[in-house]
Structures are given as C-alpha cells and as structure tokens.
Design goal:
The structure holds two protein chains of two kinds.
Chain A: E1 9-15, E2 23-29, H1 33-44, E3 52-57, H2 69-72
Antiparallel strand pairs in A: 1-2, 1-3
Chain B: H1 3-15, H2 28-47, H3 49-53, H4 62-87, H5 93-101, H6 118-139, H7 145-173, H8 177-196, H9 208-213, H10 221-239, E1 249-251, E2 256-258, H11 264-274, H12 278-291, H13 293-312
Antiparallel strand pairs in B: 1-2
Helix pairs in contact in B: 2-4, 4-7, 6-7, 6-8, 6-10
The chains are: A alpha+beta, B mainly alpha.
Chain lengths: 96, 313
C-alpha cells in the first residue's frame, strides 16, 4: 500500500435551476474548497446541469444510520392523519 | 442479529429491488465483488482516453477535434463518477490507482488495441462505446445505489459518444473509395475486440452466478452480446459496410442473428497482458500520474498555507 495521501474528499450538491433546491450528485477529491468547486463544475456540470454548486468536506457530514431506521423514523409512521387523504369530506365541499 | 439473519435480510432487500446504500450491512463478498467490478470499470474509462488521445492533434477538422476533446473529457468524468462511487465501499482512491499501476487491477482489454487511423475513432465510438452502453444500460438497475446512480449519469452522456462515432463512419462511408476502405478496415479490426468486451460465454464466466443473484449484474454476457450483434447488423447496413463475420445470419427460430466463433485465445492473451498496447497503456498512465505528483503536492501546500492565513486573520 502507498503512503501517498489523497486530497480530502468533498460532497457535491447542485441546484439545476434558480429556485430549485440543491441535490447531492456525488463526490470528488480536491486540495481546498475553491478547487473542489472548480472540479465539481468540470465533473458534474459539463452540460449545464447546474446554476449553483455547494461543496462540503465529506468528514463534516453527519448521517443517520440505516440500522436505526425503524426507531428513528417511527414518529412519522403512525400519523396518517397528517395526510389530506385521511379526511373524508362531503362531496359538496368540492375542492379543498 | 447473527450473520445468517443479516444475510437473509440483505437478500430479501435485493429481491424486493430495494437499493443497497453505503452504510447498509452487506456481505463481504458483495463488497469485494463491487470493488473489483466498479474499479475495473473506472480504470477502463481512464485508460480508454488513451487510444482516442492519439488522434486529438490529428483530427481532420477543428470541429472534429473539439468534439473528440469533449468526448475524452467525458471519459475522464465517467472515471471520476465511478472512482467516487467505489470509494463509498471503503477503498481509497490511492489504493485503486496503485492497483492499476502495479498491474493488480484490470481494465477493459479493448483499450489494448492501437488506433491506427482516423476511422478507428469512428469505430471506437460506434462499436466500443456501443458495446459499453449495452452493458451500462443494464447496470443502471444494479443493486448498489451509488453504482446505479453513476451508471444513469454515464448513460445520459454516452449516447453522444456512440452517435459521434457513427457520424464519423457515415461521413467516411460516403466519401472517396479510399475513405470508404479506411472505414471498412477500421470495422474489420474493431469488430471482434468489441464482441469480446462482453466477456467469456456465460458457461465459462466465473463471477456470473453470484453476481446475478445479488443483482449486481442484470443481464448475462451472452444476452448483452446478442443485443449488440442484433443492433449492429441493422446499423451497418446504413453505412453500406460489412461486419467481418461470414457466419452472421438471421436465425428465424431464435429471432436473433447467429454469429461466428470468437477467438478466445486472443481474448485471454490480451487480458493476461500480451495485447498490442498493454505495456504502453500502463506506462502512459504511470507517467501522467508521476508527472502530476508535484502539482498534487503544491496544491496541498497552497491549501495549507491559505488555511494558516485564514486562522491568523
């Protein structure tokens, strides 16, 4: 194995159009934030896929653990009344 | 949960077409198979730039040159998508690059053939990229999430590659007799190496069965190869050229084209390093990497210096 060091890893988020949210598209290596931004432009937006790019060093991402999904997302599971379709209104109401 | 329970849950997830993501539990063999296949795929994109790079400075027009450059840049991008996706499995970029340079990792053998004339760039786009697309379209549905997403992105971009290749051959095939002969010569040399890109027959393929069960592979080598043959036979008619296989003929019963025997001795010789350009390709990769060493070091030193300044300010 090599002792050479990789540049830090960065996660890339792109908004495809003004007004839309930034979505994760992948990752890349770069020495610093500016280079990460330029590399992200070259790697992920060669066909005008983006209007705006965010990069963040991967080590700063704190993620939920799929092992804990059942318990972690449990609060949302049994609240069907949060959805409009739960309510059966008389037809006369028409659109609401 | 014990290993067996985890394994059952994992297989159930795959059977239900639920993607596996980096932090999910996975059997070690699944991880290792993916690392092998995905890094090999990434290396192929990177080494694949070399045969085409040969013609950048000699493209017949400025337009063709600009297009070829854009295509090669795409291949670099595809390599990067795939390296990044592979890193989510816990291997570092450096380890993958070292494995390639030290001959421990493979890449698609087709790139060990030389590009002797301009028509070869057309044949590579039409046939080599065409064969790659067959494989990659099937892999968009692969069970590992990051691999699948990389494939979707790659497939979107790759169809330009195949069309630009066909466009080169189409132009040559309507040109002078000499140009037409040049296109035919390129097809003659690239057809069989392209057929070999799908790998050994299903009956001989070592990794196939488990990979199919894990849905890493969605179509078998021979199924993909057949699709490729059926498509190519139709398209070559438009070019007014012929594929160099006297045994190609429509089989009414199978509803597919039959094709002649593949020279597996040649295939294995090239895989094992005895192709026309194996040594040249790795030497070129190593040289590019070593020549870039000072740039990588300088960029890190600059980043460090800049950070120190920020702290002081």
């Amino acid at each position: 194995m090599s002792t050479k060091k990789d540049w830090p890893l960065w996660e890339v988020f792109i908004a495809s159009k003004r007004g839309l949210n930034h979505k994760h598209v992948g990752s890349l290596h770069a020495a610093d934030a500016e280079m990460a931004l330029e590399n992200a432009r070259d790697v992920y937006t060669r066909r005008k896929e983006g209007e705006s790019i965010w990069v963040v060093e991967s080590k700063f991402i704190f993620a939920s653990n799929p092992e804990d999904n059942d318990a972690f997302f449990e609060p949302a599971k049994n609240k069907v009344y949060r959805h409009p379709t739960f309510y059966d209104l008389p037809d006369e109401v028409n659109k609401m | 949960m014990d290993e067996k329970e985890l394994l059952n849950r994992f297989q159930a997830q795959i059977d239900a077409e639920i993607k596996i993501e980096p932090k999910d539990w996975m059997p070690d063999a699944y991880r290792q198979t993916l690392i092998r296949q995905m890094s090999q795929h990434a290396h192929s994109e990177i080494v694949g730039m070399l045969p085409e790079g040969n013609w950048v400075t000699r493209a017949p027009t400025l337009k063709r040159k600009a297009i070829l450059l854009a295509k090669i840049q795409d291949e670099a991008g595809h390599g990067l998508y795939l390296y990044s996706a592979t890193e989510t499995l816990g291997i570092s970029r450096q380890e993958m690059i070292d494995a390639l340079h030290e001959g421990r990792a493979k890449y698609s053998s087709v790139f060990n053939y030389p590009t002797l004339n301009w028509a070869d760039i057309g044949a590579i786009g039409w046939l080599v990229d065409g064969a790659a697309i067959m494989n990659q379209v099937a892999l968009m549905r692969t069970s590992y999430g990051p691999y699948s997403r990389a494939m979707i992105r790659i497939c979107k971009e790759e169809s330009f590659h195949q069309r630009q290749g066909f466009d080169i051959l189409y132009t040559l095939s309507r040109g002078s007799d000499e140009q037409k002969a040049m296109a035919q010569d390129a097809l003659n040399r690239w057809w069989w190496p392209s057929m070999m890109m799908f790998g050994p027959h299903d009956s001989e393929s070592t990794h196939s069965q488990q990979s199919t069960k894990w849905k890493i592979k969605r179509k078998s080598n021979d199924e993909l190869r057949q699709d490729f043959v059926d498509n190519s036979v139709q398209q070559v008619k438009v070019l007014g050229l012929t594929l160099p296989d006297p045994d190609l003929k429509w089989n009414e019963e199978r509803q597919h084209y039959d094709y002649g025997p593949i020279d597996w001795e040649e295939f294995w010789a090239v895989v094992k390093g005895r192709g026309p350009c194996n040594r040249e390709r790795i030497a070129a990769r190593k040289k590019a990497y070593d020549d870039g060493e000072w740039v990588r070091e300088a960029a890190l030193a600059y980043a460090k210096k800049k950070k120190a300044k920020e702290v002081l300010a």
